[in-house]
Design a protein that fits this description.
GO cellular component, one term: exocyst
Largest sheet: none
Protein name: Exocyst complex component 7
Order of helices and strands: HHHHHHHHHHHHHHHHHHHHHHHHHH
Radius of gyration: 53 Å
Shape: elongated
GO molecular function: phosphatidylinositol-4,5-bisphosphate binding
Helix content: over 70%
CATH superfamily of one domain: Exocyst complex component Exo70
InterPro entries: Cullin_repeat-like_dom_sf, Exo70, Exo70_C
Function: Component of the exocyst complex involved in the docking of exocytic vesicles with fusion sites on the plasma membrane.
Number of helices: 26
Strand content: under 5%
CATH class of one domain: Mainly Alpha
Low-confidence stretches: 175-184, 240-256, 269-307
Length: 694
């Protein structure tokens, strides 16, 4: 049974597989038929496509040739039109060119010039001998001249010099060319600038000259602005209106004179320099530094507020020039191509800088005349101006080109030269006074007080200290001073500030030495020895006290360590020499051993004449000395009272002994004629010395 079932299953499976095989054969036959049909279709399509290609390709090639002919024909026509346009352009634009460009519509004129330029290039390369080349060249040049004239007209029409008050406001604005406050002074509108920019670049591209037009017109604006400022400075309102802000949004400030405004401006500059220096040091070293004395500290001295007004005006001119040129540089960036900036700016600024340089020469010449008349405030004004010009150097470096900086260096050099001449002339004056003793003519004070030369010299050197930095830089250029400084320092390095102080100390030492010699020579004009000594004592004491009061003694010690001791020793010696002038008067009463000895209040007849002579001589010498010395002035109270005390201590004890021994002696029938003064009367008379009203 099992075998039967297995056989039946195998038979069924065999039948099923046979059915599947028959089905597969049938499908293979169908696929073969389809492939044959598809191959036949593709063969037919290929034949038809080949026939189509043989028919269409000649048509396509013929069409391509026709298109090329059409393109050549169009190119020929365009070229012909272009050539014809070159022949016709002269007539087309002739009227426009002769009329010139119109403001605000420059593009039309530039298009006409571009067409003329194209015609020039065509005739130049294709028919250089043609009349048409001459015509278009002439018309093109006429157009360029008209464009230059229009360029110049635009600059003149929209440019005007700044009014003095506007320029003063511009000066008052802090150094920031990007400040919004500069915009209030702009004269050229944005439209005008764009038109000038377009013209400048067209002229630059076509290699036409235009820079001298711009430089001349804008340079004239700068020059006339400075001239108007100079004229304004000559007016009576200058000192009150100068440097007063008008257009800024700041709160109104109290009125200040020119010097005060300048001081404020230069203090800001000095503080900026100090801040930059400290920031650099702190960033590089990590150390913070405290502010020491600098330019700005010395600029606050009261004498600058009442300084040389002409120098103040000149410094305003310098500031005005710098502000104007910053202003012009900003305008130039909007109009002139970058490649021409240096050339244009150099031309633009030249005349204005020359004006400032010439003004510096005129001012320094005037100051030299003042110095020759011994007006030393002018010399101090030079040092103040020099200090401020030095503070302007960063602005000069930032604003001006190398050639212009070299041009402006003349101002600094002129001021330095004048300062050096002032220092030299002052020494010559002090030295000259020491040898100016005209016979029969006295140039010393009758009361032997402090001489004018002494007070002037001390006043001058006291004020020199306020400018030690610039004076030190001037003296450093003198080989004699630098050599002496090296000798004093023994090759030790010192900071710049200390070196400048040391150089000034050497100068003051020279001035004091010449002054001492001059005082010594001048005292010889007095006939009385006591007056000679008191004159020198007054002056030497005044010098020492002035040096101590102003702390200049510490400065002079850098060059002469024994300076204070030397003056104290000189004063001591002069006091001693003055006391010796009483010796002749005291000689007859001092040595009692040489005088006759009274017995019972009487002396011998032959000795009476000796006592009469001694009393008479003392009275005569004492009265004469008191008469002279009452007219002598000793301004210093301490010195005056000290000399009176010394006189009393030196004279009264000697006279008292002489008086006690001989006043009661009967050596004359008229004793009051000889014994005229009691000791208390001598004391009273000595206390009235140096007092002409006594």
């Amino acid at each position: 049974m099992n075998n039967l079932d297995s056989s039946l299953q195998a038979h069924n499976k065999l039948e099923k597989e046979a059915t599947n095989l028959a089905l597969l054969k049938d499908r293979v036959d169908k696929y073969h038929d389809l492939s044959t049909q598809m191959s036949s279709i593709l063969t037919i399509f290929e034949k038809r496509l080949g026939n189509l290609e043989q028919t269409i390709l000649p048509v396509y090639q013929e069409t391509e040739q026709l298109q090329k002919r059409q393109q050549n024909l169009e190119a020929t026509l365009n070229c012909l039109e272009s050539v014809l346009s070159h022949y016709d352009i002269s007539q087309e634009v002739c009227q426009l060119i002769h009329q010139g460009p119109l403001e605000g519509n420059i593009s039309v004129f530039l298009e006409a010039l571009a067409k003329l330029r194209a015609a020039m290039d065509y005739f130049l390369h294709n028919n250089s001998q043609s009349v048409e080349l001459e015509n278009v060249t002439s018309l093109f040049n006429t157009g360029c001249e008209g464009l230059n004239q229009h360029y110049s007209m635009l600059l003149k029409k929209h440019s005007a010099p700044l009014k003095p008050v506007e320029l003063l406001d511009l000066i008052y604005i802090e150094d920031d060319s990007s400040s919004d406050e500069y915009t209030s002074f702009r004269q050229l509108s944005q439209t005008t600038r764009e038109e000038l920019f377009t013209i400048s670049h067209w002229l630059e591209q076509n290699m036409r000259e235009y820079t001298h037009i711009y430089a001349t017109e804008r340079g004239d604006v700068v020059l006339r602005s400075l001239q108007l400022l100079k004229d304004h400075q000559k007016s009576n309102s200058w000192g009150h209106e100068a440097l007063r802000p008008r257009h800024s949004g700041r709160q109104a400030e109290p009125k200040k004179n020119t010097s005060a405004r300048l001081q404020q401006i230069f203090e800001r500059k000095a503080n900026k320099l100090y801040l930059r220096a400290t920031q650099t040091i702190e960033q590089s070293t990590g150390f913070s530094i405290k502010k020491a004395s600098s330019h700005s500290d010395h600029l606050t001295s009261e004498d600058l507020l009442d300084g040389d007004q002409e120098l103040d005006k000149y410094l305003v001119m310098l500031l005005g020039l710098q502000r104007l040129l910053n202003w012009e540089r900003a305008i130039m960036h909007d109009i002139i191509p970058q490649s021409k900036h240096n050339e244009v700016f150099a031309r633009l600024a030249y005349n204005a800088i020359e004006l400032v340089v010439k003004d510096a020469e005129a001012i320094t010449q005037r100051i030299m005349r003042c110095i020759s008349r011994k007006e030393w405030t002018s010399a101090l004004g030079i040092f103040s101006a020099l200090k401020r010009v030095i503070l302007l150097q960063p602005d000069i470096e930032r604003t001006y080109d190398p050639a212009q900086r070299e041009q402006l260096t003349k101002v600094l050099n002129k001021l330095q030269h004048t300062g050096a001449k002032a220092l030299e002339h002052f020494l010559d004056v002090v030295k000259g006074e020491s040898s100016t003793n005209i016979v029969g003519q006295s140039n010393v004070p009758k009361d032997a007080t402090v001489h004018e030369l002494t007070s002037n010299t001390i006043w001058f050197i006291e004020h020199l200290y306020e400018h030690f930095d610039v004076i030190g830089s001037i003296l450093a250029q003198d080989v004699l001073y630098s050599t002496q400084l090296d000798t004093i320092l023994m090759k030790k390095a010192l900071p710049g500030e200390e070196r400048n102080k040391a150089l000034l100390a050497i100068y003051i030492k020279k001035a004091l030495a010449e002054l001492n010699l001059s005082i010594m020579n001048k005292c010889e004009q007095y006939n009385d020895q006591a007056t000679k000594h008191l004159f020198r004592l007054n002056n030497i004491h005044y010098i020492l006290k002035s040096l101590q009061r102003s702390n200049l003694i510490d400065l002079v010690t850098l060059a002469e360590p024994d300076c204070e001791h030397s003056y104290l020793e000189m004063i001591r010696e002069l006091k001693a020499s003055y006391q010796k002038t009483w010796s002749k008067m005291l000689q007859g009463i001092y040595s009692l051993d040489e005088l006759p000895k009274p017995v019972a209040g009487k002396v011998k007849d032959k000795d009476r004449s000796v006592l009469k002579e001694r009393f008479s001589n003392f009275n005569k010498d004492f009265e004469e000395a008191c008469k002279i010395q009452r007219g002598i002035s000793i301004p210093d109270v301490i010195l005056r009272e000290g000399i009176k005390r010394d006189n009393v201590e030196h004279i009264l004890p000697k006279y008292n002994r002489f008086f006690e021994m001989y006043a009661a002696v009967q050596f004359s029938k008229n004793p009051d004629k000889y014994v005229k003064y009691r000791p208390h009367e001598i004391n009273a008379m000595l206390s009235k010395l140096f007092d002409d009203s006594a």
